[in-house]
């Protein structure tokens, strides 16, 4: 019996995290505008999902938002 986040969700989160890491660069700013709404939709759709999966997605999206908001403030 397996408890906690499933291996499929771990793979999905890992891929999402890798995408976010690549997006969270100065070069990613041009892509962020195109992906922002999708990221927000993913955050909404994963809210309350099992074993903190949705919380992890929410946190990662917030980190990206903060990254780009700081970048805008610095300019």
Key features of this structure:
75 residues; mainly alpha; 0% strand
Summing up helix and strand content along with how strands pair, one would put the structural category as mainly alpha
Q: What helical percentage do the residues reach?
A: over 70%
Beta-sheet strand percentage? under 5%
Annotation, overall tally of beta strands: 0
Largest sheet: none
Q: pLDDT below 50 for ≥5 consecutive residues: which ranges? A: none
What gyration radius follows from the Cα positions, in whole Å?
A: 14 Å
User: What distance lies between the first and last C-alpha atoms, to the nearest angstrom?
Assistant: 52 Å
> Overall mean pLDDT score?
85
Order of helical and strand elements: HHH
Question: DSSP helix count?
Answer: 3
Q: Overall 3D geometry?
A: globular
Structure description:
This protein is mostly helical and 75 residues long. It is 75% helix and 0% strand. It is built from three helices and no strands. It has helices at residues 7-23, 29-45, 53-74. α1 (7-23) runs parallel beside α3 (53-74). The longest helix has 22 residues, at 53-74. The protein is globular and about 35 Å long. The relative contact order is 0.15. The mean pLDDT is 85.
